[in-house]
Amino acid sequence: MEVRELALSGVLEIIPRMFHDNRGYFFETYNKADFNKIGIQTNFLQDNQSFSRKGVVRGLHMQLKPNEQIKLVRVITGKVLDVVVDCRIGSKTFGEHLVHELTEEKNNMLYIPEGFAHGFSAIEDSLFQYKCSSTYDKNSEIGINPFDKELKIDWNIEIPIVSEKDMELEDFRSYKILKGII
What we know:
Low-confidence stretches: none
Helix content: under 10%
CATH superfamily: Jelly Rolls
Number of helices: 3
CATH class: Mainly Beta
Number of domains: 1
Strand content: 35-45%
Strand order of the largest sheet: 1-2-10-7-12-5
CATH architecture: Sandwich
CATH topology: Jelly Rolls
Order of helices and strands: EEEEHEEEEEEEEEHH
Largest sheet: 6 strands, antiparallel
Structural class: mainly beta
Shape: globular
Mean pLDDT: 96
Oligomer: single chain
């Protein structure tokens, strides 16, 4: 497995070792011992899967303490632009975002620490899978509008398909007010 540190501290791209032959391919999507060897000690408690048609934008979602979530995300089929926003108070990259392509051909994954809002846009019809370090808790759920003017995220979608719930999410400024930054 290859591990690459990305521009936001703690966010990692993980590329599994693939085994190809005339039948197809095989790879491990997760092996606790291998992840422990690279310093990831996360105890994942919940797996989720979603299907998104081309043009769908999902996010930006996160949970607050005590139910913050670490996520390990990947595409099973298709291609997405995965987006994380650093919402960690005091971080040198607070308020910055990262856009990273995940594809079924590469089978790459993103490891996303606690304190990041997360979302993605489906560049193709995509089956998306993610592991979470804590279970979903509606009372801890928070989000940032994916089209926030301050964040200026390029979702690379001409006419996005977005849920009503995500369109009603607060802007990043509201998050900063909630956290007492402004």
